[in-house]
Amino acid sequence: MSRPLTPTVPAQYADARAGRLPEPCEVREGLWSIPVPMPGARLPYSLAYALTDDGGGVHVVDPGTASDDGWDRLVAGIARLGRSVDDVASVTCTHMHPDHLGQATRLADASGAVVAVHRAEVAGMEALRSGRRGIVGSIDPAWGVPDEHRADLEAAHQVSGTAPWIDVDRELEDGDRLDIPGRRVEVVWTPGHTGGHVCLRESEEKVLLTGDHVLPVINPGLGLGGQTASNPLADYLASLDRVAVWDEDEVCPGHGYQFVGVAQRCAELAAHQRQRLDEVERALAAGVRTAWDVAGRLTWTGGWERLAGFRRASAIAQTAMMMQHVRGAQV
Ligand SMILES: [Zn+2]
Ligand SMILES: [Zn+2]
């Protein structure tokens, strides 16, 4: 049975939207949420999480965008647990985006911590770094991009090819346990947003760290970790089903605020994707053929005409992904 999201949007979140960063807060004893600013980004901050173990160590999940201010906030947040950067024993990243792993290398260098990322995400980062793929794939001739828009999109793909890279000490697999003495934190592979995205679940404490897989306010983009063999939308819907069963858990997302009610939120996120699939289906049924033309008929936040550069490239890639999904379902 689903219940309403709790709490209602906290005041500190409204503050953040007005440009004031919320303070770190204690989610559970020894588990803190630390807002890290995202300079120049659409979102004001990401949420890093710091957990203590029973041997004096600290384990950080998603240390956030690299900046001096972000570093100071991370260090100050760790101090709230009564520990210091020297005590950091591991850094785990839910996925490859710079607002999650940007400070991982600095933190590992400063502390000697082990860095852990899912195996598929490491493979994705390698593919992006080698330049074999852009973050939203290469521009497919079948997308039907008009000549006058080609240069803008090609440039966006070039920029998106400069993917972040970190040296990974431990490649995670689904079902693995993080090496945190005194805690049972399990890796839940949730591909969709990227191919090697993971959530982390501490079952006894009933907390679920969701990275960008489940967010309280916004709909995450899909397939943003380079091309994968499977369809990111199909992966994402399956990954929502996977975490929706933990409805008692407190969700600790990568942006926004903590809440309870993951089943309802997963249903909303899935409904959003299905609504777009319906739009794609209608466009295809009306005889629209290319991803460019289909994308122009979909509802985009802020409007299709105003999407430019990377966001437009991403929108077309997502449209192509949905078209592939619809056509696959019709076979
Ligand atoms: Zn992300
Ligand atoms: Zn993010």
UniProtKB/TrEMBL annotation:
Coiled coil: none
Pfam family, one: Lactamase_B
Top-rank taxon, per record: Bacteria
Species classification: Bacteria, Bacillati, Actinomycetota, Actinomycetes, Micrococcales
Species of the source: Paraoerskovia marina
InterPro entries hit by this protein: Metallo-B-lactamas (IPR001279), NDM-1-like (IPR050855), RibonucZ/Hydroxyglut_hydro (IPR036866)
Domain Metallo-beta-lactamase, first and last residues per copy: 45-255
The protein's name in its UniProt record: Glyoxylase, beta-lactamase superfamily II
